[in-house]
């Protein structure tokens, strides 16, 4: 792996009027990494990707993709990145083959290489036998894989996938991610946004974005450890768990309570909350209720990171 | 550059072929509209229902009546001898004109005084009334006693060039062709580009190395071909079915038409840079082409009889220039010496609109 990162953002900012869609975001993605972007809708993920693809000029700050500046060398970047937008994948009124031919030409792939790459994409999507089928006749999972193939026709070193698996069934999603792992192993940098936690777990590193800010950036395991370790409790009362929900939610230090089987799942702000929850349970005649720490999910870490940011201001601002 | 433009054009062609209803509408609609309007839209006046009230009952009166009937423009629906019959006839619409020969008409002629006739017209259709009046004057001029009266100065004999029987089809069809081509071309191009925006594919196209100009040229090329085919079909129809002559050079006709269509394409693309939905694009395209081309191009209303302010506005309506050149080539067989200025104006309009559209596309890209 070369020293130059595949993607590098420095205090990247984009405003729309008074709205700061992306606020001083800095990060660096080494080559071959599967880099996950996690955040709610409107967190600034798509705006960041659009800037990195050279589709939107940054208001301030800078970013480089494959060594080229996004503000001044957009054309160079467009030759070196693949982009799969969340709104559109392929022309549904064209056949599989016609789509590949068109997108290949659009990405400047010509001659024998074009034929070879189209054959590769058909193979990867498992659509060699259905090359003359209209894309609208394909199930969502196959369509997404074909769209990924189309975005990779020019063998870009960096590929941006904006919620590529929206509305796709779990089995097809797993197959999609197998392809992503293969790309990464071959040295392609994959920059992916997702809503699904199981997908985020498969990324090498995950960036948590909230309200235009980058809250945290680390491996999924370390994110969980630093933002949610010891903060997630499971309560198994003897009586009905639902009756305790309100009382536990009002306990100082508790961030979130949810019903979980016949028990409650409690996410706390601080480790001290466990004792407070124990007291509340005792007051409700549940002294014997089982209370134990459980391993957090990435979602817990995300909630924890938001809480931490609220307390101490921006977690990761200027530093890269 | 060329290869990628052709790739976009090919993709658009395949999509058009698959969406054959749209393609057929683009190709066939101009000709269907031409058929409908070509037959319906006519200022020609024929078979005017005439009533004759003969209060003179003389040979001279009969001669006048016969002159009207034999002119071919009038159908005699009623003869009478009571002028009170005129009102109900015109009111009910059973007659559109009434010719009254007063008592003493023949006697006046016999003594060498001018005979007096009365023609009552239904003026609610002023176009028809004006035409009938002109016809009536012509007929009366040919009635013998009047000719004697004007023997000293022979009556002027009108000689109409290019369109000797003043058939309105010859005058209107070129305008109709311009009108239909403008409307369909602008709508088709505007929708083609906005459709990509609505689908979200525009964003994906922009993420490729495809340049704005390659995209625009590729997207519009199929529509230019289709519009040119529709133009050729419409003109052939006007020539074959409506007997609009084609006196001038086909080459000049093709060139002028191409410039006109390019302007329409540019206008369509310009609209697509402003509109975000197909519905909005459709409305703007329709509104910005239909009324100006209909009203401000000289299609129906002569520009020279418009108020000065309106005349100034007509200068930005490309159909105005196209019509002059088209009528010149088709009806008169005239060359660029006559309508070179109009051709230049069409070229300037096309170049300006395409440049603005391209600049806007690059900027919004």
Describe the protein in words.
Chain A is of the alpha/beta class and 320 residues long. Chain A has two domains: 218 residues, P-loop containing nucleotide triphosphate hydrolases (Rossmann fold), CATH 3.40.50.300; 66 residues, ACT domain (Alpha-Beta Plaits), CATH 3.30.70.260. Helix content of chain A is 36%, strand content 26%. Chain A is built from eleven helices and 14 strands. In chain A, the strands form three sheets. Chain A has a six-stranded mixed β-sheet, sandwiched between helices. Chain B has 365 residues and is of the alpha/beta class. Chain B has two domains: 238 residues, no CATH class; 102 residues, abc type-2 transporter like domain (abc type-2 transporter like fold). Helices cover 68% and strands 6% of the residues of chain B. Chain B has a four-stranded mixed β-sheet with strand order 2-1-3-4, sandwiched between helices. In chain B, α2 runs parallel beside α10 and α11 runs parallel beside α15. In chain B, 39% of the residues are buried. About 3% of the residues of chain B have low confidence. At the A-B interface, α2, β6 and α3 of A face α1 and α9 of B.
